[in-house]
Structures are given as C-alpha cells and as structure tokens.
Amino acid sequence: MKIAILSRNPRLYSTRRLVEAGEQLGHEVDVIDTMHCYMDITSSNPSVRYNGQPLPKYDAVIPRIGASVTFYGTAVVRQFEMMGTYSINESVAISRSRDKLRSLQLMSRKGLGLPKTGFAHHPDKIGDLLKNVGGAPVVIKLLEGTQGIGVVLAESNKTAESIIEAFMGLKANILVQEYIKEAGGADIRCLVVGGKVIAAMKRQGAEGEFRSNLHRGGTASLIRLSPEERRTAVEAAKVMGLNMCGVDILRSNHGPLIMEVNSSPGLEGIEAATGKDVASMIIQHIEKTAFLSNTKTKGKG
After folding, report:
1. Is residue 45 annotated as involved in ligand binding?
2. Is 268 a known ligand-binding residue?
3. Lowest CB count within 10 Å: 146, 181, 199, 274, which one?
4. 141 a known binding residue?
5. Are 48 and 76 in contact (CB under 8 A)?
C-alpha cells in the first residue's frame, strides 16, 4: 500500500513511529506537510499539489492535524476524500471532534457520561451559570484551548466570577464544568482503533497540578479498565465517527465521565506506559479497511 501521513513535523515521535510501522509491514509511507499542500478544486479531476507537482495516488492517509490548523488541515483531508483516498479519520469527524461544544452536545444526546457543563459567551448572571454546574470548585475552559492551555481551576465562586469576567473581556467562548475531586488530578486515556480499545493508560498530574496532560509534567502508567469505561470509550469514538482516537475519561463517584475525544492522539506516552506497538495496530487496521469501506463522505459536509 501507498500511505501518506499528514504531519507538519516528520521528527515527531508519533509520525516517526507510524512511518517505521508502515515500512516494517511492507508499505510505502510518505510524510506530507499539511500546510504546504495546495489544491485544485475546480477541475473534474481534483488533485492535491505539493512542491510544484501533483501528489501521486495514495491508498490511505493518516491525518496528524494540530488543533491550530484544523480548518486548513480538514480541507486537505476532504480533498483526498474527493479523490477517493481512504482516510482513517474523515474530515467531517475531525471537525466534529475539534469543536468542543458540538462534541459534548452530541455525546450528551447519546446519554454518555459527562461532567456537568455550562457554555457561555457573555452571561448576564454568572452566579446562575455557576449554580447550574454545582458551584465552586469549577473548571473553566477556553473553547479553543488545547493540551491544558486555557484551563483554570477556580476554587471559590468569587474567583470563578473574576476569571469568567476576564474571559468575557477577551470576548472568548468558555465552558464551565464541575470539578471531579475524587479523580485526584488523574484521568484515563483510552486509545480506540476500529471500534476497540487497543491500549489504555492512567495520566497523573504533577504535584499541585489538577491537569494531567503529559505536556505539563504529568506521568503515565498502565491501568486496567472496567467494562463500563471500555464501553464509554468505544461509544464516544462511535458518536464522533472516528476510527482512531484518544478518549479521555475521569473516574467519578457516578461512573466514567468523558472529558474529551482527540482525533490525533500522541503515541509516545501510551506506547511507553503499555509496552504495546500501537503504531503497528493502526497500520494493520488500515490494511483491513482501506479497500473495503473507502471514504464514506467523498468530501461532502
């Protein structure tokens, strides 16, 4: 098979591992900088051009698109879909998961466990917004934040009101969520591929840090999932329409609660914590599905 990895940096661990795994399994793998692609969208023969040349026909693409380039990155994926190329995660599903509000609304509609969440841009009654999520302590998130950036824990209603007012001054959209104290600054990252959890790890925040992101000094360790946690992760991926994703779950007194679904999960932490060759499992899934299902959307939506 001829596989393209859409990634801005070929030296990143996840990109390198996918290249290694693909080549070890006998495939030809190219890394393409998403932002350097440009597209011919007006002809009856759509193409993606790169370095002055049309790209060759690929059997599959693996999007590794950062949150800051979601709009252009999904346009490139959509162009590949129009060309009949299989994408492990389709453009519509990536866009859906990157919209934090939309993803929470979709999961709520399906009855999946979520922290109590409020959404606001310029609430007239900040006190009522806080009351609806159970009051302080609360977690306040910028809708566009990633990797723990723009996420603040407010331990009192007064502090929460001050932070919300500050975000309002920046004309930012915010989510306000209940703080799950019993999680103890830890969460669970479940890697779902092809409707199955293939690996899971516990991420523990650094001392004094409520965010568990590995980028912020968190540590990762192997964990055993409960059947309910496994079902929750699989269902979240299904609701988003993602064939490959990371589902972040909190353990609460009232069951697993989904924090986020990530369409471009990093592989370094979970491979180290579990000892599993996750990259090869992703390539093997592509082997099984690329020629069977192809792309569903054909660039629509």
Report:
1. no
2. no
3. 181
4. yes
5. yes
State residue 213's pLDDT score. Answer: 59
Per-residue tokens: 93: 């599903």
Q: Is 248 annotated as a binding residue?
A: yes
Residue 262 annotated in ligand binding: yes
The reply, when asked if residue 277 is annotated as ligand binding, is no
Residue 98 is labelled as binding a ligand: no
149 vs 108 pLDDT, higher one: 108
- pLDDT given for residue 124 in this prediction: 73
Could you give the C-alpha distances from 42 to 48, 146, 297, in angstroms and in order?
12, 34, 19
Residue 77 has pLDDT above 70, yes or no: yes
pLDDT at 280 over 80: yes
Give the distance from CA 289 to its chain's centroid: 21
Q: Write down the CATH number for the domain with range 97-112+182-286.
A: 3.30.470.20
Instruction: Kindly tell me if the per-residue pLDDT of 101 is higher than 80.
Output: yes
Q: Is 182 labelled as part of a ligand binding site?
A: no
Please tell me whether the overall predicted TM-score, pTM, comes out greater than 0.85 for this model.
yes
Region 2-92: CATH code: 3.40.50.20
Is 33 a known ligand-binding residue?
A: no
Domain residues of the chain, as ranges?
2-92, 97-112+182-286, 117-179
Binding residue per annotation — 224?
no
Evaluate whether 73 touches 217 at the Cβ level (below 8 Å): no
